[in-house]
Amino acid sequence: MAGGTIWKGHIHFGGANVPVKLHTAVREERIQFHLLHRRDHAKLRQQMICAYEKKLVPIEAQAKGLEVEEGKYIIVDPEELERTAPEGTRVIEVHEFVKAEEIDPIFLDRVYYLEPDAPAKGYNELVGALREIGVDGICTWTMRKRSYLGALETDGKILRLNTLRYADEVISVKSLELQKIPVSEKELKIGSDLINQLTGPFQPEQFENEHQKKLRHLIEKKARGEEIAILRPRRLKPTESDKLLQTLEASLKKVA
Amino acid sequence: MKSHNPNLSASKSSSGREPEMIPQGIWSGTISFSLVAIPVQLVKAVDPGRVSFRMLHRDDYSPLQRRMFCPEEERIVAPDEIVKGYEIGPGKYIVMTDEELESVTPERSRTIEIIEFIDMKDVDPIYYEHPYYLVPLKGGEKAYRLLVEVLHRTNKAGLAKFVLAEREYLVAVESREGALALITLHYSEEILPDQDILPKGGKIETEEKSRMKNVIKKMMADFRPEKYADERREKILGLLKKKIKEKALVEAPEIGEEQGEGPADLIAALEESMRKVKKNR
Q1: Is residue A15 part of a domain?
Q2: N or C: which end of chain A has fewer CB within 10 A?
Q3: Contacting residues of B for A83, CB less than 8 Å apart
Q4: Is B87's Cβ below 8 Å from some Cβ in A?
Q5: Closest CB from A30, A68, A128 relative to B266
Q6: From the CA of B24, how many Å to the nearest CA of chain A?
Q7: A159 lies in the same domain as A236
């Protein structure tokens, strides 16, 4: 089942108003560990201490500051921050529509399912319209005192809202300062052939979190008092640049 | 909504960001496909653009540090006294060492092994979790460049699994503007079914649908996310500028010999640091 309703509102664009309810679409599961004191296995708590006085500082005595220059801060009170919160609205305002394939995946953040809300109108029509033209709606809304940017999309059956990252949150490739290294046409050709040979359909259901299962087994084993074998990770030997062509040829031979 | 953010980075910059620096490595190892192995480092590809405040002590404005505290002995515990425990019953734990945890899937903790290649168009965006970049380490530059180029040429992405911080990720490695981007994907069992929210009665009013299609066609544009700014952050920055003007500055005890340079310069400094952040993205 989809997660419970977390927000209600309506989609608005050019005279259309579609009432919807937001649901979580993804639930992550992971094994949780607690931090314990080695000596007595007491569960540890996180505490803030003053770097100067080296003593515990309770929440009431904590303040938020922005460091403007070394050791100098502007203090911002919670009330002041509260006042910067966007006004809550109940509208997912669609500003424009873009070809779905134009959206750079690096911007995609989190998906929510949209359920039609009463009075049910326009929902199925909007699913059909988006699907037939192959577009997503770029929209903004506010929720939980934050403003969001998102892509209104459909999988053909229901409407979904995919939150998008703001453009200045994406780190540019330029900042990685990658070197331009020449690669020969022959290496590129063999490399491409190799990739095409190894291409298959995307079948996500084939993959499960095996690590999680093994970890569970390991914990159970230890709980029974059994010895755990320690295995060391090994690093693969890097392919040397002058052996690249040779390695690609050997790879292709192996898969062909 | 962002609280889920699987920010794998262990160290978060505490105060101002350092936009000029190459992003810090989160992990290093090898990416392999078939017989080719490339030494790489994982770095972040996105940086939540929130104003990074520092927690301070209200009494003396010195920075606060996060420490682990033992409630039994009522004292701060040093890092080497801390162990990881899995709770098997109330207050009962199985302690796991880092070596034991690394032994779960050792073959995946230092290697991103591409098992197959896929067409990214086949991947429903609901699977996307978090993006990173891979950068080559010494000796891997040429093979890295080859993988970037052939992924770009074939328009494919490599599918792999690897383990980071006790968690196994399914990832897609693709070519992006001359670099390798690694995107963690959700497992299909993490995607919640949507049958129960399907609209009841699939009737479509064709007239309304064509009206919508006409409106949509009039509202078509190119994808340009830079048109939209985080209004909340702009407001916070506005608030900070105002406070600098009011000279609402405090000093931590460690430093004390210098006077503030005056409000105008501080605003310039703040603007400069924001500009650098923007420019670098």
Answers
A1: yes
A2: C
A3: 239
A4: yes
A5: A68
A6: 10
A7: no
* B57: its two tokens: 């002590």
CATH of the domain at A146: 2.40.290.10
d(CA B119, CA A241): 28
Look at A178 and B136 and tell me if their CB atoms are within 8 Å.
yes
Q: Which of A57, A147, A158 is nearest residue B57 as measured by Cβ atoms? A: A57
Tally of domains within chain A:
2
Q: Is residue A23 part of a domain?
A: yes
Which value does ipTM take for this structure? Answer: 0.90
Burial per residue of B93-122, b for 16 or more beta-carbon CB atoms within 10 angstroms, e otherwise: bbebeeebbbbbbeebbbbbbbebbbebee
Q: Over the stretch A220-251, which tens digit does the pLDDT of each residue have?
A: 999 999 988 898 887 889 999 999 999 999 99
Q: How far is CA A50 from CA A57, B10, B55, in A?
A: 6, 22, 10
CATH class of B18-51+102-190: mainly beta
* Residues A159 and A90 occupy one common structural domain: yes
Beta strands in A117-178 (DSSP E): 135-143, 146-154, 159-164
Give the gap in angstroms from C-alpha B54 to the nearest C-alpha of chain A: 5
Return the residue of A nearest to B178 by Cα. Answer: A173
Q: How many CB pairs under 8 A join A and B?
A: 548
Facing residue for B96 by CB, picked from A33, A178, A239: A33
Q: How far apart are CA B241 and CA B267, in angstroms?
A: 6
Check residue A162 and give left, alpha or beta (phi > 0: left; psi -120 to 50: alpha).
beta
> Is the pTM higher than 0.90?
no
Contact state of B140 with A33 under an 8 Å Cβ cutoff: no
Range of the domain at A194: 185-199+207-255
B255/B258 Cα distance (integer angstroms): 8
Could you tell me which residues are beta bridge partners of residue A17?
A12
User: Nearest-CA neighbor of A17 among A82, A111, A115, A93?
Assistant: A93
pLDDT in tens, A83-124: 888 888 899 999 999 999 999 989 999 999 999 998 878 999
Out of B1, B219, B250, name the one closest to residue A73 (CB).
Answer: B250
Q: How many other C-beta atoms lie within 10 A of the C-beta of residue A54?
A: 11
Same domain, A98 and A191: no
Residue A247 in domain:
yes
- Put simply, whether B15 touches A (Cβ < 8 Å) is yes
Domain range annotation of chain B: 18-51+102-190, 229-279
Distance CA A213, CA B138 (A): 35
